[in-house]
Specification:
- The structure is a homodimer.
- Chain A has about 260 residues and is an alpha/beta fold.
- Chain A folds into two domains: about 80 residues, 60s Ribosomal Protein L30, Chain: A; about 160 residues, 3-Layer(aba) Sandwich (Alpha/beta knot).
- Chain A is about 30% helix and about 20% strand.
- Chain A has a six-stranded parallel β-sheet, with helices on both faces. Chain A has a four-stranded mixed β-sheet with strand order 2-6-3-4. A two-stranded parallel sheet of chain A has the order 1-5.
- In chain A, helix 1 runs parallel beside helix 2 and helix 4 runs parallel beside helix 8.
Chain lengths: ~260, ~260
Amino acid sequence: MKNSSENINNYIYGKNSVLETISQNPRRINKIFFSTGINFDNKLKKIKEAAEKNSILIQFTNLNKFNKYFQTDDKKLQNINFQGVLASVSPVEYKDFEEFLDEKTSKYKKAVILDGVTDPHNFGAIIRTLAAASFDAVIIPKHRCCPVSAVVEKTSAGAVNHISIIKVNSLPSTIDVLKKNDWWIIAADAQCEDNYFDISYKDMNFAIILGAEGEGVSKTLLNKADFKVKIPCAFESLNVSAAAAVIVYESVRQIHQK
Amino acid sequence: MKNSSENINNYIYGKNSVLETISQNPRRINKIFFSTGINFDNKLKKIKEAAEKNSILIQFTNLNKFNKYFQTDDKKLQNINFQGVLASVSPVEYKDFEEFLDEKTSKYKKAVILDGVTDPHNFGAIIRTLAAASFDAVIIPKHRCCPVSAVVEKTSAGAVNHISIIKVNSLPSTIDVLKKNDWWIIAADAQCEDNYFDISYKDMNFAIILGAEGEGVSKTLLNKADFKVKIPCAFESLNVSAAAAVIVYESVRQIHQK
């Protein structure tokens, strides 16, 4: 660490996050710092082995002193629990939207579009759920979405390396292109008629649009959706990452269940 | 605020959290502090009206200076965003387990049992999901679970006032009593055969046991379960609050859908 202050977003930390990144995408990692004087468990050993295999620089140091090097606006980051490991990384590579459309990876593709979700913990949690549910991509707008920061990587438990993250200039025109390419667009909307389990997710490419808490999905995008679905709620609404888990796994259930 | 240091857990903060508590359980609130010099929006107005109606003391003050009064081990709490409102409260009242069993509130009752979930953000998020899904209760052990702290109340968006929170001495013997009282016990277990959507949640009292990330549900409790279910995951496992949302809402789907 050369400078007296660094941007935390050039680093990832936490065992799962570093282990997933080094397994899936070792070229992103420039250097790994391990804490001195800690219990070197299985996950840390695996990270060290993978680092050696990939000729990645390793340094043992007192990680606690690193906290003060990071400049961040997020007050929650002022005392990071590194879990013994910190890695300096190049940023997550965004997937090009056109390239994603052309890829013949699976018969049908599944994506989530985030409209105005700015909380990094929610963004990371959603990415983790999408990777678990074998979704292909998350599509975010250039503006009104948080970047793939260290908090997002950590909350995703390294899942940022498992699905395509696509950043687009305009969500409305991206949705138009998806529709032209035989995708179906489903928007979450608390005010609509259909429940999320009333529609079919089988045998089609589909993208689910989720909006920010409070505001929901913007009117422009709602108007472009083929289906609008709600989650029945007896109390307030669900947190956006819980809502994502519920709808995404309903599609998993329909596709899995005979 | 009389003393030079206070326990944050005697307070709740955030508009939704305070609004829900004053609507559902005004007797819990001793005094409300509003920030001076902020935009007094609809939610804050509703809180003020409800406070006046319930003869609750109100004080306008500079809330930012309050941060330093709170003693807390949680570093994330060192700079709280109060959203303009802070209330001094008596603790959440736990519901007595026997009383809960005897209550004739609905034909069938639904609960979640948390085994070793210690993260307050996950606990709060799960309570919020349970209230949205019309569940009756969350059952936690006296040890190995975090208390209903200010963070839990805030993350639950006030939902702690909407469902019964039951604290028991022993989860195994509580499960025995539930089974004797015609409840079915479902445990989440990554290693089992059945998917969470392969079992029926209809026409029965049931409790879903969820374990801590990494460790899962303890063997003793797994052995007592009538059903063990897993969530199919292509990448790692889900966060416990996402897992709760997925299983809980599968039961909602089955009960709602014709």
